[in-house]
Amino acid sequence: MLSKNQRTRVRILVKAFPQHSHKYEETVCCAGITDAGRLIRLFPITYRRLAREHQFDRFDLIEATLTKATSDPRPESFRVDHDSIRVIERGGKLSDESKVNLWQPHIAASLEALQQENKATGRSLGIIQPDAGSLEFFHRPAKADELQDARGMQASLFEKPLRPLTPPEFVFGYKYTSAGRPHTNTLQDWEVQAAYLAYLKRYGTREEALRMLAEEYGTRIPTRHPHFIMGTMKLHPRTFILIGLLRTGVDPGELAKQGSLL
User: Which residues are within 8 A (CB) of 123 and not within 5 positions of it... i.e. 6 or more apart?
Assistant: First the structure.
């Protein structure tokens, strides 16, 4: 159990796309695993206000002062002291086996099993493996209520407003089955929006950028044992959304079998 204002080390698994905030300019919700092996969410983080050396990526190890969020009843939700965030180790040093060993204990049998656990215990974060061969990547134009407010906001009179982010032009996601049941989720991971913009800059047209994105997320990633990080929303604590995408060159099932034999 984490106590109030406790310095805690967390291995980051995902950063969600920034959300506009009147109080904090913009906030990025992150999920990660503590040194004690607990899967938690961290907020509010004004990621672009962090010093460059402390801007973290997936699987980086950070240390920060955390407090259980009293305004958020979800058991995994912790407020982070933004100014306390420090990067301790970059994730590039981790092997695929070490990464899988981090998140493997949090895999639920299916999305339905995770939903049942949510009703029974309030669990609001978990990881699932979509059924093999069921992934169908899609994109569609972003709807008006899905566009982020791109105005530059100013949290302090002593800071310049952040440069407005490019609002998402498209929404990306997957249709899939979990334990044979069909599901459709949009992907909230910041990574997929960044990948689209990088392809757009490299190839120059939406059509080519979308084609390359579909090749990566629709063809390559499904061959790399994809797992979904699922989390509920504060205002909708029974509804799971897809907040992050994990993939690896190591078969987590085979790794679990090897571990059970040791």
Answer: 75, 76, 114, 117
Q: Cα–Cα distances in Å, from 94 out to 14, 30, 126, 145?
A: 16, 19, 22, 39
Calpha distance 55→68 (Å, rounded): 23
> What phi, psi does 109 have (nearest 5°)?
-65, -30
Amino acid identity, position 167 = P
Query: 14 and 31 in contact (C-beta within 8 Å)?
Result: yes
In the prediction, which pLDDT does 76 show?
96
Cα(187)–Cα(244) distance, integer angstroms: 7
In whole angstroms, give the CA distance from residue 64 to residue 80.
Answer: 7
- Residue 35 burial (CB < 10 Å; 0-12/13-18/19+)? exposed
Q: Which domains does the chain have, with CATH numbers?
A: 6-93 (2.40.50.730), 96-261 (2.40.50)
Note the pLDDT of residue 150: 42
Please report the DSSP string for 71-128 in residue order.
Answer: T---TTEEEE-GGG-EEEE-GGGS-HHHHHHHHGGGB-S-HHHHHHHHHHH---EEEE
**Closest C-alpha among 146, 104, 125 to residue 20:** 146
Residues of the chain short of pLDDT 70, as ranges, are: 1-4, 20-24, 145-162, 164, 259-262
Rg, the chain, Cα only: 18
Q: What is the pLDDT of residue 162?
A: 66
Counting every residue, how long is the chain?
262
Question: What pLDDT is recorded for position 22?
Answer: 61
Smallest CA-to-CA distance from 13 within 227, 166, 256 is with: 227
